[in-house]
Amino acid sequence: MGPNNEVITWTPDGKSIVFLSRMHTYNTWFGSLYTISVDGGMPVQFPVPKGGLLSFSPDGKEFAYNRIFRNFRARKRYYGGMAQKIFIHNMQTMDEQQIGDWKGTDTDPMWYKNSIYFISDRDTSRRKNIWSYDLATKEFKQITFFKDYDCSWASLGPNAIVFENGGYLYTLDLPGDKLTKLDISIPNDESLAMPKWVEASKDIVSFGIAPDGERAVFQARGDIFTVPKKSGNTRDLTNTSGVDDKDPAWSPNGKFVAYISDRTGEEEIYLREDKPNSEAIQITHGNKEYLDHMVWSPDSKKILYSDQSFALWYVDIAGKKSVLVDKDSVWAVAGYSWSPDSRYIAYAKHHDNTFTSIYIYSLADSKIHEVTNGYTNDYDPIFDRAGKYLIFLSDRTYNGVIGNFDMEFTNTKTTGIYVATLQADSASPFAPENNEVKVTGQENGASKASQEKKEAKPEKSKDVKIDFEGLGSRAVAVPVESNNIGDLSEAGGNIYYVTFPTEGLSGNASGEESALRSYNLAERKDTEILSPVDGYDLSADGESIMYQSGKTFGIIDSKPAEHKEGDGELNLSNMKMFVNFRQEWTEIFNQAWRLESQFFYSPEMNGVDWEAVKKKYEVMLPYVNNRYDLTGLISNMIGELQNSHTYVGGGYYPEIHQTTTGLLGANYSLDKASGYYRISRIMIGLNTNPNRLSPLTMPGVNVHQGDYILAINNLPVKFPMSIDSVMENTVGTTVSLLVNSKPDLKGAWTVEVNPIKDEYTLRYNDWIVRNRELVDSLSGGKIGYVYLPDMEAA
Length: 794
Known about the structure:
six-stranded antiparallel sheet; 6 helices
């Protein structure tokens, strides 16, 4: 909703500044108007509960204002409950009247003589223009007639209005309504747009491991990097500021790194060798969709990938031809894998009931075989490397949990790991075992051969045989506890997987950490390898694991053994790239446009000519000088879709070093006679909740409503000094308050308090409690007050 404190105007006498702030609000959707004397002191709230932009009448007895402030919102042609209206407030009678009844936006009121000028989208094009309202005749008149861009941030001077439209400033002379476009040039060195070296390691998005575990590959800030396990150089393989290169995957034979790039304007798959100045080899052509999650075939001849149309494809590297495997009707195909002989593809696809089933596609005859039946949610299938098993995840454990406050229940930790034998005559990996007595003296006999067979690692199969009939019914559960499980892989008879904590509205609800684990089929043993973990990748040879734990990336041995964060940590200090910001901003702008064109819920783009919108706004790209400019430009472009919840965020902004102010959870008033500040109200907190602490009500703090604050940390606090100015940089410290029940040092006492950084949740609690008490009092205890806190953590 914009900055927390924003200057709006001057009072007519020029002695005070009017500003908008959310400092005392219990709801971040609105703020209040305050005045602050140019001589200092504490802010005084305006005589209206909510406010936005404001303009005084020439005699200072009335003002025109918005109750709602949403001028930083870029959504166009808005009719909803936050649409701004203009009200005239009489400061003597406290009466208010609304100007007109337009259902859209009326904002930026500017009171000039007997007219109120304002910005409105009430014309036929629904474009925000300057209008006027005659207070005598009650007539509206359109003053400007811009068609391409909205007018914004209008400000009234003595005899003119200045405003912005399409990146230019205009003046509107008063009276006469003469419009002038200003030609303003501000020479500067554009320091925020200058190319410079940046640390790409701060912007890692995805990662992978080389087939032998000797190097790692990263996607970071739109480039593809490779980093050595221990010794060697770090390489930026793509080195492009104006292109988004993503999702790298190393071929099993180690020759190529595959990645997705939008260098043509659309996403395609490319290959590069891990060598300096290697050339990009384009593998796919003519694609119009967003691509995702490439998986190499074990023979390094094909790549599986999915796209935004919910299709699953594989592309032949030599022929550069893509083949459609299957298409989902509900969501993108996510979990898919190759058989060890590269002849089959396993994947999950939705049924109409939204559950996913496991399917296997045969490359030899292009046939699709359904493995599971859709009665359970089955997904993330993989083959073991010996070609004996199909391993997958399934939500088959209901694990109902009853809430503490009502009898409603939910289901958590429902996922298990399941193994199906690919051959009908193969025994279950969990078939009954029978220990026999070992006969001595037969070193070369059957007993030794049997023992060696038992201890030998599974070997890779050259030709996988699958008996499809009854395949799903041959599945058995791996004997590990059901949990929140994902990221299956297998090597050497070990099934690797990650368990995740249960998430609630307030975050981690189970108090657990995510963990990388391994289950050994031969030993039937489950081992925790690393915790916490945010992701991992298993090398093609099965000998190494690359992991992420927080900001740490490392490579460790894949043998089931306990490791800790930091083991095998990679040195990422040389992941640097020279960024041309103007090229990067152009890429971000284009990608923001493409994201909406591909993923917006309405294929008709709400009736907007989306190509024309791009052309209209990209003409301003050359004038972008920092990330704030870019975000504003993209926001206004997306705002043309006239849709809510289409926000722009992220990116690197110019650093602004803010000073925090310690807060005491109270309102103050000035005792003009003494110059001291009196505590006019102490917020009712909930001191058992760390987010709703009320510092002045903590045990042992002897402070009451009506007391005076005479000094803070031994510094006397009197007008024109303010309490806030003395409380700067006190968050996280203990503050000494000298207080008294009267504005006098005699009899004063000292208390120690811990200020808080933000009062929003405290004032929110105070508002709820006082409402409850008011309803109870007015109804004589007959009416209950129930407040529903929306879909968020309370």
